[in-house]
Amino acid sequence: MSKEKERRLLRVGQSIHNELSLLLLKDTRDPALLDVTITGVKMAQDFRAAKVFFSMLDSSNKERVHRSLKRAAPFFQGKIGQLLQLRHTPKLYFVFDETPEKGARINEIVNETMLDRQREKNNLSIEQFLAKRISEANSIFLCCHRKPDGDALGSVLAMKRILQLLGKSSVAYVPDEIPATMTFLPGLEDLAHTIDDGDVPDLTIVLDTASPLQLHAEVANAISQQRMGHVVVIDHHDRFDEKFGHTVVRRASSATGQILFDLIRELVWPMDDVVAVCLYAAIVADTGNFRFSNTTKVTFETAAELLNFKVSPTLVAKALFDTFTLSRQRLLGKVAETLVLLNEGRYARLICTRKMLADAQGSLQDLEGFVNIGRNVIGVEVAILVTEIEGGAKASLRSNGMCDVAAVAASFGGGGHKAAAGVTFGDCSVEEAIARLDNEMAKLF
Ligand SMILES: [Mn+2]
Known about the structure:
Blueprint: H1 3-26, E1 36-43, E2 49-56, H2 62-84, E3 91-96, H3 100-112, H4 117-122, H5 126-136, E4 140-144, H6 150-165, E5 170-172, E6 203-207, H7 217-224, E7 230-235, E8 247-250, H8 256-267, H9 273-286, H10 297-306, H11 313-321, H12 326-337, E9 340-342, E10 347-352, H13 354-359, H14 371-375, E11 382-389, E12 392-399, H15 405-410, E13 415-416, E14 420-426, H16 430-442
Helix pairs in contact: 1-2, 6-9, 8-9, 9-10, 9-11
The structure holds manganese (II) ion.
């Protein structure tokens, strides 16, 4: 076997090892699998099969655990296939690890997978541990990322209501101004806009937030100074590297609202019309009204369940997606008029000048989504919106998935994904920024 192939086998094996460890922590519902540790993965030479070695703190019920793992193997294979995007998803064969010294190493490995120590001692799942923390807490603080979107705000309001139904009062801190699109959400009047410095909560639940950098600074500071009690993070962003929160419920769900819905089921939390509206809004917001690629069968099943409560899909969709300020509508007309197609109609460009903004009495927030005016034209592969800002310009770049606009943004020091990126030009006129962007975009074809 070549050295290169040997390395690849090891690498794939290690990735499967990591992903399976996380899946066992986060995605498994089977209580028999709670204290299973993956101790090693050995790939077959053709990459089509993998032997997965497992061990347990208490090996007396290893037969039962082995059966559970075999049953769950197709589920794990499916997840591994999605996560690693291999040409062939290897078939997983679970093998009990007989090596005696492996037992002694288990605690070490368990720590590596970020298991909460206390939960480990009590042999609770993360979710059970969360329920225990909540029932023990006398004061609970809720928050989410700055400039909350529908998922963040809906999740905070749903969590506050669930706690209330559990007989727990809480402080939900959202000091941001709530956009008109979200004022229909129930419970906004109970949000806190200031933090009481003297109060140290027992428990803080951070929703829909991948990193403390996304929090309001006063909350992030209080957390880093350990003034927020035990910190729980409930989130769906794909950021496993972030060491943030004492207890982390992070799942690959469409929305944080979806995770809360699943937790309600798993932990038998109460639910009412208020919780249902908030969760429905959260899911609709993050799936773009069931249009984005994160929309799955589970999304629709969850929505159907939520419609058993007093929820109006029409009202929620109209509020979130068809509610605009007058200035935005005026700007829409002005910006649409600037649309030009270049490079045989494959590149669409839109402009918004400061004068247009001033004439419409609009703000930069009004421009959200305008780049799609260009991208949605038949035949267009990439679109940009160039916006004149004080002392420079900025641009949003979108592609239909075939061209990599992140590379274009990167060439000007910007960033983003293949299909959506952004860049800011300081010290440069809007005309100059356009010329430079046109030049770079032309290289894509
Ligand atoms: Mn979200």
